[in-house]
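Subject: N5-carboxyaminoimidazole ribonucleotide mutase structure
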Amino acid sequence: MKVAIIMGSISDRNIAEGVQKMLDKFGVAYDTKVISAHRTPYAASEFASKAEEEGYGVIIGIAGKAAHLSGVLAAYTTLPVIGVPVAGSVEGLDALLATVQMPTGVPVATVAINGGKNAGILATEILAVADKSLREKLRAYKEELAAEVDEMNKEL
């Protein structure tokens, strides 16, 4: 299974690169596209409706301002959707609220503002439920993080 990384605008590319970095680390396949919930709503509904049959297991939506992208994608699929709110003129609070405040029945798992790396990790964890090799890679990554903290303590 692969991950879909959907940006609302090309200006979200730097956040998408954080997602890609983590998916590359774990060897997870992905595709990256620009689809706007407001400028190309039909494309958003079409993509989400067909995502499962196209081999996607998780969709990540990245958007700022009136960040409705992840919610629109979630409305048209039963796949897990992860929302990444992007900081903008009000430090991303507008995007955070638009992403996280979803009605019952249309959940979006939301990571931190500009949290592309965590979105990539969460997508990997979702796929790892059915993939032992991914679980092992995630365990090794957590051990790397712990070792980094140990090194910090040695520097004190």
